[in-house]
Design a protein that fits this description.
The complex is a heterotrimer of chains A (281), B (123) and C (214). Chain B has 123 residues and is mostly helical. Chain B has five helices and two strands. A two-stranded antiparallel sheet of chain B has the order 1-2. In chain B, helix 1 crosses helix 3.
Chain lengths: 281, 123, 214
């Protein structure tokens, strides 16, 4: 459904380098990385808000520039920044947006207005960040979009809200023909819901794999510093040593299990652990 | 149908699911031909990835516990009576193996365990 | 396309503040303007008003980052550009009508300038408007908002000075004369203006399609 191949874009101080990943319909892909890693840039390139230097992007099997209009007709997008006309009301904003979509469904829109407790006559500038986000989502869901692209949709929202959004996403993905692409640095949101995780750091893709695989491959090893020698240190992607012991992320937890048995504690990592250790080293 | 998963356990989630469903089928809590929740519905209810539930169901299908029909969903497979008996025995064998392990560690002899078994069965 | 044009119009009249602003802008200009040549007031008002109407949506979009939205909707970039060029023409007509309306009312209550709308004024303002738009629209569509704003103010001030404030100047008078002859060749003039406008639109389409948004 969404296919990115060798996407490259050079900025003066930053380079998006050979980014590649693939998302099939029926799945949710989490796009994680620290701030400034290139998440928003990648999404802007997919939506053709920025011009790529090289690489291929296909949505629904079609080139994203050649068939830009047809593709965007089927994409629901939610961005982090506010991009609505603040002085207009929800209804006025909707009236401006709706005519551009061929499959706009007003019934659905009204349904979501009720579900999300939004008042169509409210001025956009009076909406809280969470409500604006819900409004974006309502719009994205009211034109029968097949691919939902979200760029940091939950940053700045309280956990209750975030859980509500996740529930909505779960409902969407019950339909096997739809897919969701979700970029965030709040990895706890993705821990539950994501099917695939693509991790980007400093403009490069670190991995793009099924989430279960990721969480099963990596392990957090904790123990006393005396156990560390040159060989074991090499096994760590990221290591934290203190006076009371060490804690590190490794791709080979089994090695440690076999070598040290009960002397170390091996735990399942969280996505946050993986991200932090990979970035910090 | 009751499935409870633990995020903090070391056992992979898909195994937790397939183990629990297996148990229900063997104990007869899930009847032959009964429909299982869809992989997506289950993923939503458990708040996990659909790939996990898919994997659990694939394991169950490989071991002959369920059947998946394209477009219709997954159902408890018709259980071969002998196979069922074998599976039930296997379940007990696994539990007994643990008892035997512990007994050896604690230094308890076979005869003493037999005694205990007798008493338990008479209860 | 029509939705885009409607949007631009809607935006200008969306809030009470902007509606009030647009209504009193012209009468207000009348009050504060001190132009030596009374006749020049007419073209000045038409051009200023047309300029305001055209630049307002651009400023809105830049301020609210709504171009993020527009470029994410299923709209061909080419259509966005074409709609702006059509809107500009519509804005000119609105400017023309409203200026005529305001000045006629003022004439009726004897506060006006006593000059009637004539073909020369229309020809002249069309000429200037098309010319200015052909430069300012590409600027708005391609340059970062602040830079575009600066460019436009500069262009506008220059043009206005030439055509409105300094008709007494010898060189300026020559320019206006050339223009005068030019516009007397009706068809030719329209054709050239048309070509300039379309050329500008073509360039804008290219610039807009190859543009990076932030």
């Amino acid at each position: 459904m969404l296919e990115v191949k060798n996407l490259t874009k050079d900025f003066k101080k930053f380079k998006l380098d050979n980014v590649s990943f693939k998302l099939e319909p029926g799945y949710i892909m989490g796009f994680i990385g620290p701030n400034g890693a290139g998440k928003s840039t990648t999404i802007k390139l997919i939506m053709n808000l920025l011009k790529k230097d090289s690489g291929e992007i296909k949505v629904f099997g079609m080139d994203h520039i050649k068939y830009e209009k047809e593709i965007k007709d089927r994409i629901g997008f939610v961005y982090d920044e506010s991009y609505f006309y603040e002085d207009l009301s929800i209804k006025q904003m909707k009236d401006i947006i709706a005519p551009f979509y061929t499959k706009w469904d007003d019934h659905k829109f009204n349904y979501y207005m009720k579900e999300f407790n939004l008042d169509p006559s409210q001025k956009i500038k009076k909406l809280s960040k969470g409500m604006k986000m819900k409004f974006s989502l309502a719009i994205g869901l009211s034109h029968n979009a097949d691919l939902i692209i979200m760029d940091e949709p939950t940053s700045g929202l309280d956990p209750v809200f975030r859980r509500e959004i996740l529930d909505i996403l779960y409902d969407i993905i019950q339909d096997e023909e739809k897919a969701i692409f979700f970029s965030t640095h709040i990895t706890t949101d993705l821990e539950k819901i994501a099917d695939y995780i693509t991790f980007i750091n400093d403009g490069k893709i670190v991995f793009s794999n099924p989430k279960d695989e990721v969480l099963e491959t990596y392990g957090i090893v904790k123990g006393t510093t005396s156990l560390l020698d040159r060989d074991t240190r090499k096994e760590f992607l990221g290591l934290r040593e203190t006076k009371v012991g060490f804690e590190g992320l490794t791709e080979n937890p089994d090695k440690f299990r076999r070598k040290y048995g009960n002397e170390v504690i091996i735990e399942k990592p969280s996505l946050e652990d993986i991200m932090v250790y990979s970035v910090r080293g | 149908m009751k499935i409870i998963i633990s995020n903090s356990s070391n056992e992979p989630i898909y195994e937790q699911i397939s183990r629990q469903i297996k148990g229900m089928i063997i104990k007869g809590e899930l009847a032959e031909g009964e429909a299982l929740p869809s992989i997506r519905g289950l993923a939503r209810d458990l708040q996990i990835s659909v790939i996990t539930t898919k994997r659990a169901y694939e394991e169950l299908e490989k071991e002959g516990f369920i059947e998946t029909m394209q477009g219709k969903g997954s159902f408890v497979a018709m259980q071969n009576k002998e196979l069922m008996k074998e599976k039930k025995l296997k379940l007990i064998e696994e539990k007994l193996a643990e008892v035997v392990r512990e007994s050896k560690v604690l230094g308890i002899k076979y005869e003493e365990v037999e005694e205990i078994l007798k008493i338990l069965f008479e209860e | 396309m029509i939705s885009l044009i409607k949007r631009d119009l809607k935006l200008n009249f969306a809030t009470k503040a902007s509606v009030i602003f647009l209504i009193i802008f012209l009468p207000f200009l009348m009050l504060i303007m001190e132009i030596n040549d009374i006749e020049r007031i007419y073209p000045f008002m038409i051009l200023s008003y047309g300029y305001i109407l055209t630049s307002m949506p651009f400023r809105y979009d830049a301020r609210e980052k709504a171009d993020l939205l527009i470029q994410s909707l299923p709209i061909k970039k080419r259509d966005v550009v074409i709609s702006k060029y059509i809107s500009a023409l519509i804005n000119y007509l609105i400017a023309l009508s409203y200026t005529w309306f305001v000045l006629s009312i003022l004439d009726l209550i004897k506060l006006g300038i006593g000059v009637n709308l004539n073909l020369t004024i229309i020809k002249e303002t069309v000429f200037v408007f098309i010319l200015v738009s052909s430069i300012s629209l590409p600027a708005y569509l391609r340059l970062p908002p602040k830079l575009a704003g600066v460019v436009n103010v500069i262009i506008f001030v220059i043009i206005l000075n030439i055509f409105v404030f300094m008709p007494g100047d010898k060189d300026i008078t020559n320019i206006i004369n050339i223009f005068g002859e030019f516009s007397n060749n009706g068809f030719f003039a329209i054709a050239i203006l048309g070509i300039i406008y379309l050329l500008s639109m073509g360039i804008s389409i290219f610039l807009y399609e190859t543009r990076d948004l932030y």
